[in-house]
Amino acid sequence: MDLGLLASGLLVTLELAGLSIVLSLVLGIAIGVMRAAPVAPVAILAEGYIAFFRNIPLLIVLFFALNGLPASPLGIRLSYFETAVAGLVVYTAAYVAEVVRAGVQALSRGQTEAGRSLGMSWLQTMRLVLLPQALTAIVPPLGSVFIALTKNTALASTIAVPELLYQSRIIESRTFNPNVLLLTGLVYLAVTLPLGGLVNYVEARMSVVGARSQGGR
Fold first, then answer.
1. In angstroms, rounded to a whole number, what is the distance separating the alpha carbons of residues 46 and 35?
2. d(CA 154, CA 174)
3. Residue 184: which domain range?
4. pLDDT tens, 137-163?
């Protein structure tokens, strides 16, 4: 069994997951803020984005990014890796946006009114008052979204990205040893379990900091 191929595939998987997590978080927060905006056209546009991408398979997004974008009037051509990142980001951002929207709307309406009474605009109130509190509260669901994203990177193998599953299938075709897929599953487990532990640690730390800040008031 060629462990070197698995190692190179794991590296690509980690790069794909890490980049997609960062970009989907940025895009998802932006769309989540738009979804909570008091301007109806902006909120409707964000709601449409969320509903669309949450209700179609990720494979369709990946295949469209691979074949549809080059054939579009824009003629956008991406590498296989860039295509996978683009598909994962626009897809996962819809889930991040919904989590952010729920976190913002769960906060007391009085906090928004307090910010506005201090002369802040809606955007300033969102950025300085609501978002920091919401992001603290939504760490667990965001963690679940990003763990799912990490597992979804396996679908990049369908568009020839040489990530972990792609390389394991190459090894299986050469050796006719199906146990390589079991090993690949264990590698994914070794990646996602620490990620879940990190989410729990961050949540616990934020709870301690929040309790201290409340106790100091």
1. 5
2. 20
3. 3-215
4. 888 899 999 999 999 999 999 999 999
